[in-house]
Amino acid sequence: MTIFDNVFPLGFGTNRLPIKSASDEEGIEKSANLIADAIRAGVEFIDVTNTYSRGKAMDAVKRAFEIYKPIDGVTVKMRLSADKTAADAYNTAESILKQLGISHAKYFYFWSVFTYEEYLQTLKPGGVFEGALRLKKEGIIDNICFSTHAIPNDIVKMLESRNFDAVTISMNLLNSFSFNDVLRTADDLDIGVAVMNPLGGGIIPKNPEYFSFAKGSDDRDVPEAALRYVLAHKPIQIALSGISSHEELQRNLEAVSMEVEEKDEERLNRVNVSISGLENFCVGCNYCSGCPVDIPVMAIMRCRNNLQFKPADQNYAFLPEYVQQNIYVCGKIEQDFSVLFEDTVNPCIKCGKCEHNCTQHLNIIDAVADTYKRAEYSNWSRQDRINKLKEIIDNTPDNTIGIYPSGITSSTIRRFYEDNIEQFKCKIVSFDSNPSVWGSDDNGIMVYSPDDILDVHPDVIIITSYKFKNEIYENIKKYESYGIKIVKLSDDNELPWLL
After folding, report:
1. 59 and 78 belong to one structural domain
2. Is the dihedral of CA 12, 135, 144, 406 positive or negative?
3. What is the rounded distance in angstroms from the CA atom of residue 466 to the CA atom of residue 331?
4. Which of 310, 322, 357, 439 is the residue whose CA sits 20 to 30 A from 246?
5. Three-state SS letters, 405-443
Protein backbone atom coordinates (compact mmCIF):
# COMPACT_ATOMS: atom_id res chain seq x y z
CA MET A 1 0.00 0.00 0.00
CA THR A 2 1.30 3.46 -0.94
CA ILE A 3 -0.12 6.97 -0.78
CA PHE A 4 -0.83 6.76 -4.53
CA ASP A 5 -3.08 3.70 -4.28
CA ASN A 6 -6.38 4.45 -6.06
CA VAL A 7 -5.08 7.82 -7.29
CA PHE A 8 -5.83 8.49 -10.97
CA PRO A 9 -2.69 7.45 -12.93
CA LEU A 10 -2.35 10.64 -15.01
CA GLY A 11 -0.76 13.60 -13.24
CA PHE A 12 -1.02 17.12 -14.65
CA GLY A 13 2.35 18.89 -15.11
CA THR A 14 1.92 22.67 -15.21
CA ASN A 15 5.24 23.74 -16.78
CA ARG A 16 3.93 23.67 -20.36
CA LEU A 17 0.75 25.68 -19.99
CA PRO A 18 -0.17 27.94 -22.94
CA ILE A 19 0.98 31.11 -21.18
CA LYS A 20 3.16 33.40 -23.32
CA SER A 21 4.18 35.91 -20.66
CA ALA A 22 3.49 36.94 -17.07
CA SER A 23 0.87 39.41 -18.33
CA ASP A 24 -0.86 36.96 -20.72
CA GLU A 25 -4.33 37.02 -19.14
CA GLU A 26 -5.86 35.12 -22.04
CA GLY A 27 -3.25 32.36 -21.66
CA ILE A 28 -3.77 32.15 -17.90
CA GLU A 29 -7.53 31.86 -18.34
CA LYS A 30 -7.11 29.22 -21.06
CA SER A 31 -4.77 27.28 -18.78
CA ALA A 32 -7.18 27.52 -15.86
CA ASN A 33 -9.97 26.01 -17.95
CA LEU A 34 -7.60 23.27 -19.11
CA ILE A 35 -6.70 22.35 -15.53
CA ALA A 36 -10.35 22.52 -14.46
CA ASP A 37 -11.28 20.10 -17.25
CA ALA A 38 -8.51 17.74 -16.13
CA ILE A 39 -9.85 17.75 -12.56
CA ARG A 40 -13.36 17.23 -13.88
CA ALA A 41 -12.08 14.18 -15.81
CA GLY A 42 -10.58 12.64 -12.66
CA VAL A 43 -7.00 13.98 -12.41
CA GLU A 44 -6.01 14.11 -8.73
CA PHE A 45 -2.31 15.02 -8.84
CA ILE A 46 -1.24 18.48 -10.02
CA ASP A 47 2.47 19.20 -10.18
CA VAL A 48 2.88 22.94 -9.68
CA THR A 49 5.31 25.49 -8.33
CA ASN A 50 5.80 29.24 -8.60
CA THR A 51 8.41 29.17 -11.38
CA TYR A 52 6.43 27.07 -13.88
CA SER A 53 4.90 28.54 -17.05
CA ARG A 54 6.36 32.06 -16.87
CA GLY A 55 5.80 32.05 -13.12
CA LYS A 56 2.01 31.97 -13.57
CA ALA A 57 1.20 28.27 -13.11
CA MET A 58 -0.04 28.76 -9.55
CA ASP A 59 -2.33 31.57 -10.68
CA ALA A 60 -3.79 29.23 -13.31
CA VAL A 61 -4.29 26.44 -10.75
CA LYS A 62 -5.99 28.80 -8.28
CA ARG A 63 -8.29 30.04 -11.03
CA ALA A 64 -9.07 26.42 -12.02
CA PHE A 65 -10.13 25.75 -8.45
CA GLU A 66 -12.48 28.71 -8.66
CA ILE A 67 -13.89 27.55 -12.01
CA TYR A 68 -14.61 23.96 -10.98
CA LYS A 69 -13.56 22.92 -7.49
CA PRO A 70 -10.44 22.97 -5.32
CA ILE A 71 -8.52 19.77 -4.70
CA ASP A 72 -5.71 19.10 -2.25
CA GLY A 73 -3.76 16.82 -4.56
CA VAL A 74 -1.17 19.48 -5.36
CA THR A 75 2.58 19.61 -4.84
CA VAL A 76 3.80 22.14 -2.30
CA LYS A 77 7.47 22.41 -3.22
CA MET A 78 10.34 23.54 -1.06
CA ARG A 79 13.62 24.46 -2.79
CA LEU A 80 16.73 23.20 -1.02
CA SER A 81 18.69 25.99 -2.74
CA ALA A 82 16.54 28.57 -0.97
CA ASP A 83 15.02 26.95 2.12
CA LYS A 84 17.55 26.09 4.82
CA THR A 85 15.70 25.98 8.14
CA ALA A 86 12.57 24.47 9.63
CA ALA A 87 11.00 27.93 9.61
CA ASP A 88 11.84 28.34 5.91
CA ALA A 89 10.08 25.09 5.03
CA TYR A 90 7.05 25.95 7.13
CA ASN A 91 6.73 29.50 5.78
CA THR A 92 7.22 28.37 2.17
CA ALA A 93 4.38 25.87 2.49
CA GLU A 94 2.04 28.45 4.03
CA SER A 95 2.89 30.97 1.31
CA ILE A 96 2.26 28.49 -1.51
CA LEU A 97 -1.05 27.31 -0.05
CA LYS A 98 -2.15 30.93 0.29
CA GLN A 99 -1.26 31.58 -3.37
CA LEU A 100 -3.28 28.52 -4.39
CA GLY A 101 -6.23 29.59 -2.24
CA ILE A 102 -6.30 26.39 -0.18
CA SER A 103 -5.34 25.55 3.40
CA HIS A 104 -4.25 21.93 3.06
CA ALA A 105 -2.26 19.81 0.58
CA LYS A 106 -1.55 16.11 0.28
CA TYR A 107 2.00 16.38 -1.03
CA PHE A 108 4.87 18.39 0.43
CA TYR A 109 7.90 18.01 -1.83
CA PHE A 110 11.62 18.40 -1.29
CA TRP A 111 12.10 19.68 -4.84
CA SER A 112 15.01 18.42 -6.98
CA VAL A 113 17.22 16.75 -4.40
CA PHE A 114 20.42 16.28 -6.39
CA THR A 115 22.55 14.09 -4.13
CA TYR A 116 22.32 11.92 -1.04
CA GLU A 117 24.69 14.32 0.74
CA GLU A 118 22.31 17.19 -0.02
CA TYR A 119 19.47 15.17 1.48
CA LEU A 120 21.48 14.52 4.65
CA GLN A 121 21.81 18.28 5.15
CA THR A 122 18.02 18.51 5.51
CA LEU A 123 18.13 16.25 8.58
CA LYS A 124 20.29 18.55 10.70
CA PRO A 125 18.69 19.91 13.89
CA GLY A 126 16.58 22.92 12.98
CA GLY A 127 16.73 21.95 9.32
CA VAL A 128 14.00 21.77 6.73
CA PHE A 129 12.96 18.21 7.60
CA GLU A 130 11.87 19.42 11.01
CA GLY A 131 9.72 22.00 9.24
CA ALA A 132 8.14 19.28 7.09
CA LEU A 133 7.38 17.18 10.16
CA ARG A 134 5.75 20.16 11.85
CA LEU A 135 3.57 20.76 8.78
CA LYS A 136 2.51 17.12 8.83
CA LYS A 137 1.85 17.11 12.59
CA GLU A 138 -0.36 20.19 12.28
CA GLY A 139 -2.32 18.64 9.42
CA ILE A 140 -1.28 21.26 6.87
CA ILE A 141 0.23 18.58 4.64
CA ASP A 142 -0.35 14.82 4.59
CA ASN A 143 2.79 13.36 3.02
CA ILE A 144 6.48 14.17 2.77
CA CYS A 145 7.86 13.42 -0.70
CA PHE A 146 10.86 14.27 -2.86
CA SER A 147 11.60 14.73 -6.54
CA THR A 148 15.07 14.02 -7.81
CA HIS A 149 17.51 13.77 -10.68
CA ALA A 150 20.08 12.08 -8.45
CA ILE A 151 21.93 8.98 -9.56
CA PRO A 152 19.95 5.77 -8.89
CA ASN A 153 22.24 4.62 -6.05
CA ASP A 154 21.61 7.87 -4.18
CA ILE A 155 17.86 7.61 -4.76
CA VAL A 156 17.89 4.11 -3.30
CA LYS A 157 19.66 5.36 -0.16
CA MET A 158 17.15 8.18 0.24
CA LEU A 159 14.28 5.71 -0.08
CA GLU A 160 15.92 3.36 2.43
CA SER A 161 15.96 6.16 5.01
CA ARG A 162 12.17 5.62 5.19
CA ASN A 163 11.61 9.35 5.67
CA PHE A 164 9.53 9.75 2.53
CA ASP A 165 6.08 8.66 1.47
CA ALA A 166 6.67 9.09 -2.28
CA VAL A 167 9.26 10.00 -4.89
CA THR A 168 9.08 11.56 -8.34
CA ILE A 169 11.77 10.39 -10.78
CA SER A 170 12.53 11.20 -14.42
CA MET A 171 12.05 7.95 -16.34
CA ASN A 172 11.09 6.92 -19.88
CA LEU A 173 12.09 4.64 -22.75
CA LEU A 174 15.50 6.33 -22.88
CA ASN A 175 16.63 5.43 -19.37
CA SER A 176 14.27 2.89 -17.83
CA PHE A 177 16.85 0.14 -17.24
CA SER A 178 18.88 2.26 -14.84
CA PHE A 179 15.92 2.61 -12.46
CA ASN A 180 15.42 -1.09 -11.74
CA ASP A 181 16.90 -0.88 -8.23
CA VAL A 182 14.99 2.32 -7.47
CA LEU A 183 11.66 0.76 -8.42
CA ARG A 184 12.43 -2.46 -6.57
CA THR A 185 13.32 -0.55 -3.39
CA ALA A 186 10.22 1.65 -3.58
CA ASP A 187 8.05 -1.42 -4.08
CA ASP A 188 9.63 -3.23 -1.13
CA LEU A 189 9.13 -0.22 1.16
CA ASP A 190 5.62 0.70 -0.06
CA ILE A 191 6.78 4.12 -1.27
CA GLY A 192 4.71 5.74 -4.00
CA VAL A 193 6.39 6.49 -7.34
CA ALA A 194 5.43 9.20 -9.80
CA VAL A 195 7.31 9.74 -13.06
CA MET A 196 8.12 13.04 -14.75
CA ASN A 197 9.26 13.29 -18.38
CA PRO A 198 7.60 9.99 -19.41
CA LEU A 199 7.97 11.10 -23.05
CA GLY A 200 11.64 12.05 -22.72
CA GLY A 201 11.07 15.79 -22.68
CA GLY A 202 9.47 15.65 -26.14
CA ILE A 203 12.16 13.52 -27.76
CA ILE A 204 9.97 10.41 -28.05
CA PRO A 205 6.96 12.07 -29.77
CA LYS A 206 9.28 13.89 -32.19
CA ASN A 207 11.06 10.66 -33.21
CA PRO A 208 8.25 8.15 -33.69
CA GLU A 209 10.14 6.05 -36.25
CA TYR A 210 13.06 5.46 -33.91
CA PHE A 211 10.76 4.46 -31.05
CA SER A 212 8.26 2.54 -33.17
CA PHE A 213 9.29 -0.67 -31.38
CA ALA A 214 7.36 0.57 -28.32
CA LYS A 215 4.04 0.53 -30.17
CA GLY A 216 1.91 -2.55 -29.68
CA SER A 217 -1.32 -3.60 -31.33
CA ASP A 218 -3.36 -1.77 -28.68
CA ASP A 219 -1.53 1.55 -29.11
CA ARG A 220 -2.60 4.26 -31.53
CA ASP A 221 0.79 5.95 -31.63
CA VAL A 222 4.24 5.99 -30.04
CA PRO A 223 3.53 8.62 -27.33
CA GLU A 224 0.58 6.54 -26.12
CA ALA A 225 2.76 3.43 -26.11
CA ALA A 226 5.54 5.23 -24.24
CA LEU A 227 3.14 6.44 -21.56
CA ARG A 228 1.70 2.95 -21.12
CA TYR A 229 5.20 1.47 -20.98
CA VAL A 230 6.09 3.69 -18.01
CA LEU A 231 2.87 2.81 -16.18
CA ALA A 232 3.38 -0.90 -16.90
CA HIS A 233 6.09 -0.91 -14.21
CA LYS A 234 4.22 -2.05 -11.10
CA PRO A 235 5.74 0.42 -8.60
CA ILE A 236 4.91 3.42 -10.85
CA GLN A 237 1.43 4.69 -10.09
CA ILE A 238 1.40 8.18 -11.62
CA ALA A 239 2.79 9.46 -14.92
CA LEU A 240 3.12 13.24 -15.04
CA SER A 241 2.43 14.81 -18.40
CA GLY A 242 3.13 18.45 -19.22
CA ILE A 243 -0.13 19.42 -20.93
CA SER A 244 -0.64 22.51 -23.08
CA SER A 245 -3.91 21.85 -24.92
CA HIS A 246 -7.25 20.10 -24.59
CA GLU A 247 -6.21 17.76 -27.39
CA GLU A 248 -3.16 16.63 -25.41
CA LEU A 249 -5.26 16.25 -22.28
CA GLN A 250 -7.79 14.06 -24.07
CA ARG A 251 -5.13 11.83 -25.64
CA ASN A 252 -3.38 11.35 -22.31
CA LEU A 253 -6.63 10.60 -20.51
CA GLU A 254 -7.46 7.95 -23.09
CA ALA A 255 -3.96 6.48 -22.92
CA VAL A 256 -4.24 5.75 -19.20
CA SER A 257 -7.94 4.85 -19.15
CA MET A 258 -8.60 2.63 -22.17
CA GLU A 259 -8.74 -1.14 -21.73
CA VAL A 260 -5.92 -2.93 -23.59
CA GLU A 261 -5.35 -6.59 -24.24
CA GLU A 262 -1.59 -6.63 -23.70
CA LYS A 263 -0.67 -7.33 -20.09
CA ASP A 264 1.83 -5.08 -18.34
CA GLU A 265 4.41 -7.86 -18.04
CA GLU A 266 4.03 -8.73 -21.71
CA ARG A 267 4.50 -5.08 -22.68
CA LEU A 268 7.64 -4.75 -20.56
CA ASN A 269 9.18 -7.93 -21.95
CA ARG A 270 8.43 -6.95 -25.54
CA VAL A 271 9.70 -3.39 -25.30
CA ASN A 272 12.75 -4.17 -23.14
CA VAL A 273 14.04 -6.69 -25.67
CA SER A 274 13.97 -3.97 -28.33
CA ILE A 275 15.65 -1.41 -26.06
CA SER A 276 18.45 -3.88 -25.33
CA GLY A 277 18.98 -4.34 -29.06
CA LEU A 278 19.27 -0.66 -29.97
CA GLU A 279 22.56 0.18 -31.66
CA ASN A 280 24.80 2.96 -30.33
CA PHE A 281 22.45 3.36 -27.39
CA CYS A 282 23.46 3.36 -23.72
CA VAL A 283 20.95 1.37 -21.66
CA GLY A 284 22.36 2.57 -18.32
CA CYS A 285 23.55 -0.81 -17.04
CA ASN A 286 26.54 0.99 -15.41
CA TYR A 287 29.03 -1.81 -16.12
CA CYS A 288 31.33 1.02 -17.26
CA SER A 289 31.68 2.29 -13.68
CA GLY A 290 34.98 2.36 -11.83
CA CYS A 291 36.90 4.73 -14.12
CA PRO A 292 40.45 5.09 -12.67
CA VAL A 293 40.33 8.87 -13.22
CA ASP A 294 36.72 9.23 -12.02
CA ILE A 295 35.11 10.18 -15.31
CA PRO A 296 31.31 9.85 -14.92
CA VAL A 297 31.12 7.49 -17.89
CA MET A 298 27.56 6.25 -17.52
CA ALA A 299 26.19 9.78 -17.06
CA ILE A 300 27.99 10.93 -20.21
CA MET A 301 26.89 7.97 -22.31
CA ARG A 302 23.29 8.08 -21.11
CA CYS A 303 22.97 11.74 -22.03
CA ARG A 304 24.71 11.24 -25.38
CA ASN A 305 21.75 9.08 -26.38
CA ASN A 306 20.09 12.41 -27.13
CA LEU A 307 22.51 13.03 -30.00
CA GLN A 308 20.68 10.41 -32.04
CA PHE A 309 17.63 12.68 -32.27
CA LYS A 310 16.81 16.14 -33.48
CA PRO A 311 16.58 18.57 -30.53
CA ALA A 312 12.99 18.63 -29.32
CA ASP A 313 12.68 21.40 -26.74
CA GLN A 314 11.12 24.49 -28.31
CA ASN A 315 12.57 26.63 -25.51
CA TYR A 316 15.94 26.32 -27.24
CA ALA A 317 14.83 26.21 -30.88
CA PHE A 318 16.30 29.69 -31.45
CA LEU A 319 19.83 28.33 -30.93
CA PRO A 320 22.19 26.73 -33.48
CA GLU A 321 21.78 22.96 -33.52
CA TYR A 322 25.26 22.34 -32.07
CA VAL A 323 24.40 24.45 -28.99
CA GLN A 324 21.06 22.66 -28.65
CA GLN A 325 22.92 19.35 -28.76
CA ASN A 326 25.27 20.54 -26.04
CA ILE A 327 22.29 21.39 -23.86
CA TYR A 328 21.01 17.85 -24.34
CA VAL A 329 24.42 16.37 -23.50
CA CYS A 330 26.26 18.57 -20.99
CA GLY A 331 23.17 20.27 -19.62
CA LYS A 332 21.42 16.96 -19.03
CA ILE A 333 24.52 15.51 -17.36
CA GLU A 334 24.21 18.31 -14.81
CA GLN A 335 20.44 18.13 -14.50
CA ASP A 336 20.02 14.37 -14.41
CA PHE A 337 23.23 13.34 -12.63
CA SER A 338 24.31 16.46 -10.69
CA VAL A 339 27.65 16.35 -12.51
CA LEU A 340 29.50 19.50 -13.55
CA PHE A 341 33.02 19.01 -14.94
CA GLU A 342 35.67 20.64 -12.76
CA ASP A 343 37.36 21.95 -15.90
CA THR A 344 37.22 21.12 -19.60
CA VAL A 345 40.50 19.20 -19.89
CA ASN A 346 39.75 15.58 -20.84
CA PRO A 347 41.35 13.38 -18.12
CA CYS A 348 40.81 10.10 -20.00
CA ILE A 349 43.94 7.88 -20.05
CA LYS A 350 42.43 5.54 -22.69
CA CYS A 351 42.86 2.46 -20.55
CA GLY A 352 39.86 0.86 -22.28
CA LYS A 353 38.30 -0.59 -19.14
CA CYS A 354 34.93 1.03 -19.81
CA GLU A 355 34.75 -0.17 -23.42
CA HIS A 356 35.77 -3.70 -22.43
CA ASN A 357 32.89 -3.89 -19.93
CA CYS A 358 30.25 -2.20 -22.09
CA THR A 359 27.44 -4.62 -22.97
CA GLN A 360 26.46 -2.44 -25.97
CA HIS A 361 30.05 -2.26 -27.33
CA LEU A 362 29.96 1.55 -27.49
CA ASN A 363 32.93 3.71 -28.52
CA ILE A 364 33.17 5.29 -25.10
CA ILE A 365 36.69 6.75 -25.36
CA ASP A 366 35.79 8.77 -28.46
CA ALA A 367 32.47 9.78 -26.93
CA VAL A 368 34.14 11.08 -23.76
CA ALA A 369 36.63 13.08 -25.84
CA ASP A 370 33.81 14.64 -27.87
CA THR A 371 31.87 15.49 -24.71
CA TYR A 372 34.84 17.35 -23.25
CA LYS A 373 35.19 19.26 -26.54
CA ARG A 374 31.55 20.26 -26.25
CA ALA A 375 32.13 21.32 -22.66
CA GLU A 376 35.10 23.45 -23.72
CA TYR A 377 33.08 25.14 -26.48
CA SER A 378 30.29 25.84 -23.99
CA ASN A 379 32.51 26.98 -21.09
CA TRP A 380 30.70 24.28 -19.16
CA SER A 381 32.71 23.60 -16.03
CA ARG A 382 32.88 24.65 -12.43
CA GLN A 383 36.04 26.63 -13.07
CA ASP A 384 34.50 28.48 -16.02
CA ARG A 385 31.57 29.53 -13.86
CA ILE A 386 33.87 30.63 -11.04
CA ASN A 387 35.90 32.72 -13.47
CA LYS A 388 32.80 34.33 -14.95
CA LEU A 389 31.33 35.31 -11.58
CA LYS A 390 34.66 36.66 -10.37
CA GLU A 391 34.83 38.79 -13.50
CA ILE A 392 31.25 40.06 -13.14
CA ILE A 393 30.92 40.58 -9.39
CA ASP A 394 32.91 43.05 -7.30
CA ASN A 395 32.12 41.57 -3.91
CA THR A 396 32.84 44.56 -1.72
CA PRO A 397 30.38 45.78 0.93
CA ASP A 398 29.62 49.12 -0.77
CA ASN A 399 28.66 47.52 -4.11
CA THR A 400 25.15 46.56 -5.22
CA ILE A 401 24.53 43.64 -7.58
CA GLY A 402 21.30 43.55 -9.56
CA ILE A 403 19.87 40.31 -10.95
CA TYR A 404 17.28 40.34 -13.74
CA PRO A 405 14.83 38.62 -13.54
CA SER A 406 14.13 37.25 -10.06
CA GLY A 407 13.54 33.55 -9.49
CA ILE A 408 15.31 30.26 -9.01
CA THR A 409 18.31 31.09 -11.23
CA SER A 410 19.09 34.04 -8.97
CA SER A 411 19.16 31.75 -5.95
CA THR A 412 21.28 29.26 -7.88
CA ILE A 413 23.89 31.90 -8.71
CA ARG A 414 24.02 33.08 -5.12
CA ARG A 415 24.43 29.56 -3.81
CA PHE A 416 27.12 28.70 -6.38
CA TYR A 417 29.07 31.86 -5.55
CA GLU A 418 28.99 31.22 -1.81
CA ASP A 419 29.78 27.50 -2.18
CA ASN A 420 32.70 28.01 -4.57
CA ILE A 421 34.11 31.51 -4.02
CA GLU A 422 33.11 33.29 -0.80
CA GLN A 423 30.18 34.67 1.14
CA PHE A 424 28.46 37.66 -0.41
CA LYS A 425 29.48 40.95 1.16
CA CYS A 426 27.83 43.18 -1.43
CA LYS A 427 24.12 43.99 -1.52
CA ILE A 428 21.94 41.93 -3.90
CA VAL A 429 18.67 43.07 -5.44
CA SER A 430 16.45 41.74 -8.23
CA PHE A 431 14.52 43.37 -11.05
CA ASP A 432 11.53 41.77 -12.73
CA SER A 433 8.97 42.78 -15.36
CA ASN A 434 6.21 40.88 -13.51
CA PRO A 435 4.26 43.42 -11.38
CA SER A 436 2.99 40.70 -9.06
CA VAL A 437 6.47 40.20 -7.55
CA TRP A 438 7.44 43.87 -7.11
CA GLY A 439 8.17 44.65 -3.48
CA SER A 440 8.43 40.98 -2.54
CA ASP A 441 11.33 39.29 -0.82
CA ASP A 442 12.81 36.45 -2.90
CA ASN A 443 14.90 34.50 -0.37
CA GLY A 444 16.29 37.67 1.17
CA ILE A 445 16.56 39.53 -2.17
CA MET A 446 14.20 42.49 -2.65
CA VAL A 447 12.47 42.52 -6.05
CA TYR A 448 12.06 45.84 -7.87
CA SER A 449 10.39 47.06 -11.05
CA PRO A 450 12.73 47.78 -14.00
CA ASP A 451 11.57 51.39 -13.65
CA ASP A 452 13.42 51.48 -10.31
CA ILE A 453 16.82 50.71 -11.83
CA LEU A 454 18.08 54.30 -11.73
CA ASP A 455 16.84 54.84 -8.16
CA VAL A 456 18.46 51.62 -6.90
CA HIS A 457 21.48 52.21 -9.17
CA PRO A 458 23.28 48.87 -8.88
CA ASP A 459 26.89 48.71 -10.01
CA VAL A 460 26.10 45.79 -12.31
CA ILE A 461 22.96 44.03 -13.55
CA ILE A 462 23.33 40.34 -14.36
CA ILE A 463 20.77 39.13 -16.90
CA THR A 464 20.03 35.55 -15.87
CA SER A 465 17.27 34.74 -18.37
CA TYR A 466 18.66 32.46 -21.06
CA LYS A 467 15.97 32.64 -23.72
CA PHE A 468 15.19 36.34 -23.33
CA LYS A 469 18.65 37.67 -22.47
CA ASN A 470 19.00 39.68 -25.68
CA GLU A 471 15.49 41.10 -25.40
CA ILE A 472 16.08 42.14 -21.79
CA TYR A 473 19.41 43.69 -22.69
CA GLU A 474 17.82 45.80 -25.44
CA ASN A 475 15.22 47.05 -22.96
CA ILE A 476 17.70 48.14 -20.29
CA LYS A 477 20.93 48.92 -22.16
CA LYS A 478 20.10 52.63 -21.89
CA TYR A 479 21.18 52.46 -18.25
CA GLU A 480 24.77 51.77 -19.29
CA SER A 481 25.10 55.49 -20.02
CA TYR A 482 24.45 56.07 -16.30
CA GLY A 483 27.44 53.96 -15.30
CA ILE A 484 25.55 50.72 -14.70
CA LYS A 485 27.32 47.70 -16.16
CA ILE A 486 24.97 45.19 -17.78
CA VAL A 487 26.16 41.64 -18.47
CA LYS A 488 24.54 38.40 -19.61
CA LEU A 489 25.13 35.35 -17.43
CA SER A 490 25.36 33.11 -20.50
CA ASP A 491 26.82 33.94 -23.90
CA ASP A 492 25.26 32.51 -27.05
CA ASN A 493 27.61 29.51 -27.16
CA GLU A 494 27.09 28.69 -23.48
CA LEU A 495 24.42 26.69 -21.68
CA PRO A 496 21.70 27.77 -19.27
CA TRP A 497 22.62 27.25 -15.63
CA LEU A 498 19.23 25.63 -15.13
CA LEU A 499 17.31 23.70 -17.78
Report:
1. yes
2. positive
3. 13
4. 310
5. CCCHHHHHHHHHHHHHCCCCCCEEEEECCCHHHCCCEEC
Give 21's pLDDT tier (boundaries 50, 70, 90): confident
- Asked if 134 and 255 sit in the same domain, the reply is yes
How many domains does one find in the chain? 3
The letter for the amino acid at 30 is K
Q: Which domain holds residue 479?
A: 383-488
State pLDDT tens for residues 311-336. Answer: 877 778 889 999 999 998 999 898 87
Q: Report whether 418 contacts 474 (CB < 8 A).
A: no
Task: For residues 87 and 198, state if they share a domain.
Answer: yes
Measured at the CA of 25, the angle between CA 24 and CA 29, to 5 degrees, comes to: 120
Read off the pLDDT of residues 371-430 as tens digits, 9 standing for 90 and up: 999 999 999 999 999 999 999 999 999 999 999 988 777 778 888 999 999 998 999 999
CB atoms within 10 A of CB 30: 18
| Residue 232 domain flag | yes
What does the alpha-carbon distance between residue 489 and residue 463 come to, in Å, rounded to a whole number?
Answer: 6
Which tens digits make up the pLDDT trace of 46-85?
A: 999 987 887 889 999 999 999 999 999 999 998 877 788 9
253 and 243 in contact (C-beta within 8 Å)? no
User: What are the phi and psi torsion angles at 47 (to 5°)?
Assistant: -90, 110
Which of 85-89's residues contact partners 24+ apart within 8 Å by CB, and which partners?
A: 85/126, 85/127, 85/128, 85/131, 86/126, 86/127, 86/128, 86/129, 86/130, 86/131, 86/134, 87/131, 88/128, 88/131, 89/128, 89/129, 89/130, 89/131, 89/132, 89/135
Q: Which one, of 229, 227, 250, 248, lies nearest residue 239 by Cα?
A: 227
Reported pTM? 0.79
Query: Is residue 46 assigned to a domain?
Result: yes
* Spatial separation of the C-alpha atoms in residues 241 and 75, rounded to whole Å: 14
User: Beta 192-196 vs 75-79: how paired, if at all?
Assistant: unpaired
